[in-house]
């Protein structure tokens, strides 16, 4: 199964080798910039030009949580390996760590001088790496 998101504001899961669409989700009001499966595989997270991050339940094909807090487009998202936290990177120059259980922002990471374009948790750690239009990479300890 492959997960995609695009300018059509939809995420889709595709089965291979046939390439058929298995599931489609809609709800964002602008393009999708990122999407990834929760480590358990039962949910996914998407990021969008509409400045939100959304959590989706695959069994219901529906959005179960919308995370708001960025003031501009969200360029990327990533799950922590434990499955309880999501990271987001935004054109507003910040990144956020979201606690999925409490449904709130745990940390806002400030330090880049321009748009944050990508974010990833390093596997099985509390370290996040971000990249920015300011031509820097940053490592963050989010404990």
UniProtKB/TrEMBL annotation:
Pfam family, one: WD40
Xref: SMART domains: WD40 (SM00320)
Any GO CC annotation of this UniProt entry: axonemal central apparatus
Keyword entries, A-Z: Repeat, WD repeat
Gene3D superfamilies (UniProt xref): YVTN repeat-like/Quinoprotein amine dehydrogenase (2.130.10.10)
UniProt keyword Repeat present: yes
InterPro entries: WD-F-box_domain-protein, WD40/YVTN_repeat-like_dom_sf, WD40_PAC1, WD40_repeat_CS, WD40_repeat_dom_sf, WD40_rpt
GO BP term, pick one: axoneme assembly
Keyword Repeat recorded: yes
Ranges of the WD repeats in the UniProt entry: 25-59, 67-108, 109-143
UniProt protein name: SPG16 protein
Gene that specifies this protein: Spag16
């Amino acid at each position: 199964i492959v997960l995609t998101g695009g300018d059509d504001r939809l995420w889709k899961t595709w089965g291979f080798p046939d390439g058929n669409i298995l599931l489609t989700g809609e709800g964002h009001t602008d393009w999708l910039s990122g999407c990834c499966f929760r480590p358990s595989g039962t949910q996914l997270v998407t990021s969008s030009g509409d400045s939100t991050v959304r959590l989706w339940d695959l069994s219901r094909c529906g959005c179960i949580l919308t995370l708001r807090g960025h003031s501009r487009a969200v360029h990327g998202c990533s799950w922590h390996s434990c499955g309880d936290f999501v990271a987001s990177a935004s054109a507003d120059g910040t990144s956020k760590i979201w606690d999925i259980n409490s449904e709130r922002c745990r940390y806002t990471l400030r330090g880049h001088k321009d748009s944050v374009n990508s974010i990833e948790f390093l596997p099985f750690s509390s370290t996040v790496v971000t990249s920015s239009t300011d031509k820097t990479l940053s490592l963050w300890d989010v404990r």
